[in-house]
Fold:
Amino acid sequence: MMDEYERISRMIDHSLLKPNTLVSEFEAGCHMAARYRTGSVCIQPHYLRRCVEILEGSGVQASTVIGFPHGGHRTSVKVAEAEQALADGGQELDLVCNISRAVSGDWEFVKTDLAAVIDLTHAAGQKVKVIFENCYLTDEQKIRLCEICTELKADWVKTSTGYGSHGATMDDLRLMRKYSGASVQVKAAGGIRDLAALLKCREIGVTRVGASATQSILDEHRRQLQLPPILTGATTAGDGY
Structure:
């Protein structure tokens, strides 16, 4: 049962990216993710170092965002952000593509921009998820991004930041899975608020889901598996089982 639980819990990147998030909410969210054994916590960059400290030994990855949320930063700024995130202990970086250049069809710029961060991060032994922001893209543009990310050996392609006009759709997830190489995983973000939606993503071949409703999703999963509830006051990854 625990193996089945973790097959779902490890799919979730617990999102702590809302601009008005309290420091106390960062703290509580990191501890909750450790107790529930999520895949990662994706947190605002300024709190990443503390996130790493809280998650140490839990098996939950510490992640943050680069070029967030519009991808319009200069490449040198994205590289500086990535360098800082890696220095702070970041293990997975969620990198926003330059949306303006993508919709303009400037694919050489897009490729060079992404490669700068992907190569740096891989050289440090860590991983990158490339965020497309599909709500602004045509299917042809999404496919081209999948091809570029496959060529650059990105670890994941990701639907959205959660701050565009809409988040993940099942059609987009199918398209991304179809046109990304076998070595590239797919992450859904935006609008995945319950266990049923997460399981639909899993059926398509999605391996990660960004969510802020992590606790309610995993509480429902535990009830279905007839596992005991996680103890609210537990502070380490092993507590509550």
Remarks:
- The CA atoms of residues 62 and 120 lie 17 Å apart.
